Amino acid sequence: MRFDDRLSTVLGLSADGPRDRAVQWRQLVELVARGAGTSDPALLTRALERIAILSSEVPDAVRVAAARAVAGPFVPRALLASFLDRSETAAPLLAAVQLDDAGWAELRAKASPSVQALMDSQRPAALEGRAPELPPPGRLPANDVAERARAAPAPADPPGLFRWECGPTGEIDWIEGAARAALIGRSLAEDFGQRFAARLPFNDEPLVVAGEGEMAGEWRWSGTPAFFPDTGRFAGYHGSARRGEGALAAVETPFAGGTALQGDRLRELIHELRTPLNAIIGFGEIIEGQILGPAHRAYRDRAAEIVRQARRLLAAVDDLDLAAKLQSGRLRNGEGSPLPELLAEVADRLEPELARKGVRLTLVQPGAAYRTSLQRDLATRLLQRFVEAVLGATGAGEELGLRTGSQGHLVAATLNRPAALGGRAEQELLDPSFSAPGESGLGTGFALRLVRGLAVVAGGRLEITAGGLSLHLPTASG
């Protein structure tokens, strides 16, 4: 079905309830962003009008997620206009879009004051030749990332210095004085985990930017937290970074096969994968929920399976994002997390899936509390991916025993082999095409191969023996 046909179909939905209207809005946004309606201006106008009407009813979190999903250099200008009421929704789109001066000025005229301030900070030279609005003497510009209004710097910043800002979730959304592609989207919440969580300033902290371009190497970062003046709500950070003393060479870590991943290219690939996957999930949910009208049970079941597999693939894409962050050096070592505690958290997270499959997961507590040096969130994610990969091949009524141990400079979480994996060689289990009986879509081989690649980048490994499968992670010193 052509995009225009899909657009016409979605526009025909009744969408009586709040959830139905939010789903319709999301689907219209994704279709228009992908070029639907270009051959039928009247249809496109109807879609844009419907998007504008529903925007005020759609939760902010849904709008921000949609903006991030469709952000790109060629998002239609008319669609962008529907996101210009709030800086939180506009920021991802404005950071990625490519517009000439006339297009930028046209959008600015339609934007709210907060978004106008954001646009001024991103493109001060292109705004109708206006002089920048300076803050009152003796006052800094508003300490508020989302409501910022920045004066253009008098002389350009010296070489080796750039300015940055990030929103409340930590992703950098504004850069001045440096190549944006290498940094936009980088999560400072991960780089400065404890300080970020406590809303504390930081000064001259070293961080490495990976790659081969002019940004590669060590930079010293300084940042100050910002808050909305009216509500006191946290708005993000703003600050600067300077080239480190004796800048480090670019850091490249081989991933699951020896090929160094280039951070910028990988981020572009991740975006290109996420966009169609989100659309697939959305359309599958429409069929499963019978939003387009009654659907046979067989079609609904098939749609549910498509959604499930698309979500698994989306999780794999997120793992690639994690690999890029690991490679770039953003996820520094933590203070040491007890492995049994992390595994208990993983078991709690997987309880619904364990109950659905009828599988029992038993934690065998060791005498010593083995600890990993990886950041807690990273270690938990790797352990969960590992258990999920084996759980996918585990049949109803089986029991998985999860135990901990250590080996040299690594700690290990080990699972026994379920029946479907018994007697199979390592080469077969790591074949991306391998699926256990009853599995469909992305199977156990694909999942285990991803786990192995992530473990290698994190400084560990995946070990497969006749007795079970073990995920080894770096141990905490001391």
Automatic annotation (TrEMBL):
Superkingdom assignment: Bacteria
SUPFAM superfamilies assigned to the protein according to its UniProt record, in alphabetical order: Homodimeric domain of signal transducing histidine kinase
Listed GO MF terms: phosphorelay sensor kinase activity
Organism: uncultured Sphingomonas sp
Record-given protein name: histidine kinase
InterPro entries: His_kinase_dom, HisK_dim/P_dom, HisK_dim/P_sf
Reactions performed catalytically: ATP + protein L-histidine = ADP + protein N-phospho-L-histidine
Domain Histidine kinase residues, every copy: 268-464
Pfam families, A to Z: HisKA
